Amino acid sequence: MEKAIKYFIKYPINADVILVLLSLIGMIALFGLTKSQFPTLESSTIIIEGRMHGTSPEEMERAFAYKVEKEIKSVQGIKKITSVSQESSSIVTVATETKVDINTVLQDIKIAVDKINSFPVDLEEPTIYIAKRNDIAAEFVIYGETNLQNLKYYAEKAENDLLENDGIAEIKLSGFPEQEIIISVREYDLNKYSLTFNDLSNAISNSNIDLTAGNLIIDNMEVTIRAKGKQFTSDALSYIVVKTTVSGGLITLKDIANISLEWSDNPNRNYYNDEKSVSVTVYTTANEDIIDAAEITKQYLADFNDSNTQIKAKIVTDGSVIIGQRIDLLVRNGIMGMLLILIILGLFLNIRLAFWVALSLPVSALGMFILAPYFGVNINVFSLFGLILVIGILVDDGVVIAENIYEKYEKGMSASKAALQGLQEVMSPIIVALTTTMVFFTVFFFIEGQVGGFVAQIGFIVIVTLMVSIIEAFFILPAHIAHSKALKKGNKVNKLQAFMDKSIKRFRDKYFKPFLNFSLNNKLLTFSIPIVFFIVSIAMIIGGQARMTFFPYIDTDNVTISVNMPVGTTEDETKKVLDRIELASKDVNTKLSSEREDANEIILSYIKKIGPKAHQGTLTLNLLDGETRDMASAKISSIIRTETGIIHNAEDVKYGASSLFGDAISISLVGDDLKEIREASQFLVSSLKNNPELKDIISSDQVAENDLSVVLKPKAKSLGFTLKEITQQLRNGYLGLEAQSLQIGQNEVKVYVKYDVEETTSYAKLENIKIRKNGEQYPISELVNFEKASTTLSLNHINGKKRINIKAELADAEGSVSEAIADINKNVIAKIENDYPD
């Protein structure tokens, strides 16, 4: 290494070439990197979805989840299998091992699922895919004084326009349900014309068709015979003939039913500041830049608002803000670091030396960017954090080397010899110090899971930047210093430098030297002091004075309030609860704004969303940016909670979303006996609710108490009816029988035959239904009893066992998660394990 150092000192032009190459290639690599909120990681999750319309969670569990879990558990490379079975759907989630090829596991899972030949006939083809996590570049709402159909039109137009840009590949719309054509019939008309739902469905599917019959060759010309009878509007469908009378009369759909294009029963409604709205969310994939995508979106919205008066669009989430803020912070820190080097070294040594030391900061960072693309590193919050972290470390070795070289020169050595010996004296301690730091950061590469993938980029940034800094400090910096004018004879020290030099020497001789001598002469005392501080620190942690948590509280610029009402609650009732919370939020906003000197509103906008079920909804409050508002979002949500008061008719209300790293408390109770797990979970939930340190306790075990169970009477059995036969007729009437699926524009619109809404409003209407068989009609009240029953809404598994998950948040956002978990383990979990040993 000594020969290489001498070579660069002798031929500094080569050091300049390396410096320029590192800078230029690094800048090219830097500008080629995409920017995203989080690191782009290869997914380790595979999703298997099964859907069967109108099926209970228990049936989805039996018909799909159990079978898939059993078949795929032997596939190599699987780490964990979880599943959630709900009404009409079941989702099995597979977490793969870290070092396996996920595409190979995907193919093996597909083969295993294809082997299952006992799926119900009504089950849709299972969907199997690798889960991808894309960043939200921007989310905006389209709102105005118009109907939902128009809002949907403008949202779809915005989607199509934005997708024409190269920087945007995925957009999702929300705020409206799917549209359906509903053939609404009354029981009276079905009885009058002796029709069934299947009769109507068959009439539609047989009449509303486009079909090619074949070809004729006439006069050497090929003529195609086609039936072109497919209609796409409710008015056109109303003329379909469903039956003919004895006299030859025609009975059409419009004679016995109301036909209309409607929104489906699945709630999916958005409100922006109390106005109906549709949300458009723009995502970026691994190859797209989040800042570019956000800028494209904002420019589109500016043009949109200029060309529309009644309909407006407003950005509610800008995913590029956090990246922009981190880049600004990095640039500010870098400039500040360079200025401090220039000022301090300029005062104590020489401004020219300070320049070459300061230059090592950008050069080391740019050198790191050369390797970044080859290791999957891009510009994101974690890589930027790594750069901000390493800036302070980079300065040290350059300052030490420059100061030592300058000291050698002051003692009479030539510039070249001072550069060589000055470096050699401090080379070993610098290598040890930087190597120790790099070894520490290698730990980040051994953390598993998504968090491990994120922090590994911090480790890469720090280690590679330090490696480049070693090259710069050992070969480039000495060459520049050796030939700098700072080491030329005849340089005069100005008065300020002379004063600073005199001051530092006075401090060294009068204060530091005596203190150092005292420390060296009293080794036991010197050694004992840090030991005492260490013991005191540990004691403070054990005693609770210094609280610990796994991940720090990270403030956000929004508050999300989630509401879960009892199952069966209507969409309107859920909206009333959200309206109540919104009203309380507005009162809080008025109060907090009045207390501010700048009178700025703390809450900028209110977004209500109802869904995915009628009893579920969220209220998102977009806040003034954190630096300006000077108040934690957790405190704002706490004030809103107090202002709202207890919502007695809600199952649970959660004020504030979970952090990036998940819920503060998440406990899974696992076993084979659901009854025992449920009993244990109820005790756990009760205990957590009584803990003042916790809030927002939510259990995955939710039960619908108002279900009706169909039980056959003896008469039904004697007539040959089966439970499936009767239930299927009820299902056709209430859930609807799908007659056809029409492609209208870019939307798939399904045609359903079902009871008119008026037929579904009372038990009396239910008991008036006639069940049909072999041309005969029987009152349903003679065939079945309806008994009160309860149904679990969601059935969860983990590795083949039943699971109930309970989540909670800390009442104090900056409290200690580890202490809370320790308390729960000691006072609650221990009792559960004792009472339920299996």
Produce a short descriptive summary.
By secondary structure, the chain is α+β, with helices and mostly antiparallel strands. The protein is 49% helix and 24% strand.
What does this structure look like?
- The chain has 838 residues and is α+β, with helices and mostly antiparallel strands.
- The chain has 6 domains: 45-130, Alpha-Beta Plaits; 135-176 and 268-318, Alpha-Beta Plaits (2-Layer Sandwich); 180-263 and 711-773, Multidrug efflux transporter AcrB TolC docking domain, DN and DC subdomains; 323-489, Multidrug efflux transporter AcrB transmembrane fold (Up-down Bundle); 506-538, no CATH class; 555-658, Alpha-Beta Plaits (2-Layer Sandwich), CATH 3.30.70.
- Helix content is 49%, strand content 24%.
- The protein is built from 26 helices and 29 strands.
- The strands form 7 sheets. Strands 5, 6, 13, 14, 15, 16, 17, 18 and 19 form a 9-stranded antiparallel beta sheet that branches. Strands 1, 2, 3, 4, 20, 21, 28 and 29 form an 8-stranded antiparallel beta sheet that branches.
- Helix 2 runs antiparallel to helix 15 (449-482) and helix 18 (571-594) crosses helix 20.
Largest sheet: 9 strands, antiparallel
CATH topology of the largest domain: Multidrug efflux transporter AcrB transmembrane fold
| Name of the CATH class of the largest domain | Mainly Alpha
Global morphology? elongated
Proportion of residues in β-strands: 15-25%
Tally the beta strands. Answer: 29
Write out the CATH superfamily name of the largest domain.
Answer: Multidrug efflux transporter AcrB transmembrane domain
CATH architecture of the largest domain: Up-down Bundle
Poorly predicted regions: none
Q: How many helices in DSSP terms? A: 26
Category by helix and strand content: alpha+beta
Average pLDDT score: 87
State the domain count. Answer: 6
Radius of gyration from CA coordinates = 36 Å
End-to-end distance, in Å? Answer: 65 Å
| Helix percentage | 40-55%
